[in-house]
C-alpha cells in the first residue's frame, strides 16, 4: 500500500464522515468508519470526535488485533473497533465498514424488527434482508459475537437497541448500503402508518433475486427466496474456503517439498 493510496483512503473516510453527519445518521461523536488496507492493516476513525469534521491526520492505522500501528496523539481508535475487525476477519472480500445510528433504522433495531419485507424492488436487489443482531454492551466481545451470526449471508445488520452496521467491497458501497438501509426503514415506517406495507409477490421477488444474482450481489433475500443457482451464504463460504491464506500455502509448499525429497531419496 503506497503512502499516496493511504492518504487517499484517509480523505475518503473524512468525506464519508461528513456525509453520515449531514444525513443525520449520527449525533455528537457517534458512529465509526473503517477501511482495510491489507491483510493486517486497517484505517479507522477516532473516538471522541464528530465524524462530520474530521481531517486525515485524525485517522488511525491498526492491525487485525486492534493494536495501533500509526496515529497522531491524542486520537485513539473507536471503542467499537471490534465489530469492524470481526467483519474483516470473517469476510476477506470486504474492504470497508460503516457504523451509524440512523433514526428510522435504529427505531427498527429498538423494536427488534428486521428489515426483511419485500416492499421495494431496489431494496430487494441491492440491500437484501437486514436481520437484528442481538444486543451486546458496546466495546465488549458481545457485539462482534452477535454480528458474527449474520456476517456471511447479509450485507449489514441492525444492532439491537443501538444502530446499524454495513459492510461493502469499498467504502462507497458500504456507505450506499447504509443509505439504502435507512431509506428502506423510513419507507417501511411510513407505509405502516397507512396500514399499507404490502409486500411484492413471491414471483416478483424471484425475478428480482435472479437479477441480483446476475449482478453478483450477495446476501439473503426477502420471503426466503433464493436464486435457482442456490444459497448465497453457502456460495460465499465455499468461495472463502477456496481462497487459501498465505499460511495455508506455506504449509502445502512444505508438505509437497518434503514428499518430493522423500521420493527422490528412494530413487537415489
Ligand atoms: Zn454505535
Report on this structure.
With 268 residues, the protein is an alpha+beta fold. The chain has a single domain (3-230), classed as L-fuculose-1-phosphate Aldolase, CATH 3.40.225. Helices cover 46% and strands 13% of the residues. It has 9 helices and 8 strands. It starts with a helix and ends with a helix. Residues 30, 80, 99, 101, 162-163 line the site of zinc ion (ZN). Zinc ion is lined by residues 30, 80, 99, 101, 162-163.
Q: What's the helical proportion of residues? A: 40-55%
- The CATH architecture would be 3-Layer(aba) Sandwich
Intertermini distance: 47 Å
Strands, count: 8
What is the CATH fold-level name?
A: L-fuculose-1-phosphate Aldolase
Structural class by sheet pairing and helices: alpha+beta
Molecular shape: globular
What is the count of distinct domains? 1
C-alpha-based Rg, rounded: 21 Å
- H/E series, N to C? HEEEEHEHHEHEEHHHH
Amino acid at each position: 500500500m503506497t503512502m499516496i493510496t493511504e492518504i487517499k483512503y484517509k480523505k475518503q473516510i473524512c468525506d464519508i464522515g461528513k456525509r453520515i453527519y449531514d444525513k443525520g445518521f449520527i449525533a455528537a461523536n457517534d458512529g465509526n468508519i473503517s477501511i482495510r488496507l491489507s491483510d493486517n492493516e486497517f484505517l479507522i476513525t477516532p473516538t471522541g470526535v464528530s465524524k462530520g469534521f474530521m481531517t486525515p491526520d485524525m485517522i488511525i492505522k491498526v492491525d487485525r488485533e486492534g493494536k495501533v500501528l500509526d496515529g497522531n496523539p491524542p486520537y485513539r481508535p473507536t471503542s467499537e473497533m471490534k465489530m469492524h475487525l470481526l467483519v474483516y476477519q470473517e469476510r476477506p472480500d470486504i474492504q470497508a465498514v460503516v457504523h451509524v445510528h440512523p433514526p428510522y433504522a435504529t427505531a427498527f433495531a429498538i423494536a427488534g424488527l428486521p428489515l426483511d419485507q419485500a416492499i421495494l424492488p431496489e431494496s430487494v436487489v441491492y440491500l437484501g434482508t437486514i436481520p437484528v443482531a442481538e444486543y451486546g454492551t458496546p466495546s465488549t466481545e458481545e457485539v462482534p459475537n452477535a454480528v458474527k451470526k449474520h456476517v456471511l449471508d447479509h450485507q449489514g445488520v441492525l444492532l439491537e437497541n443501538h444502530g446499524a452496521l454495513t459492510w461493502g467491497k469499498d467504502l462507497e458501497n458500504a456507505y450506499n448500503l447504509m443509505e439504502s438501509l435507512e431509506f428502506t426503514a423510513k419507507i417501511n415506517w411510513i407505509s405502516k402508518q397507512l396500514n399499507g406495507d404490502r409486500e411484492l409477490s413471491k414471483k416478483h421477488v424471484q425475478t428480482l433475486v435472479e437479477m441480483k444474482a446476475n449482478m453478483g450481489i450477495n446476501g439473503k433475500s426477502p420471503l426466503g427466496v433464493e436464486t435457482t443457482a442456490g444459497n448465497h451464504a453457502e456460495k460465499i463460504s465455499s468461495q472463502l474456503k477456496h481462497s487459501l491464506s498465505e499460511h495455508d500455502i506455506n504449509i502445502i509448499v512444505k508438505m509437497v517439498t518434503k514428499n518430493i525429497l522423500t521420493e527422490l531419496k528412494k530413487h537415489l
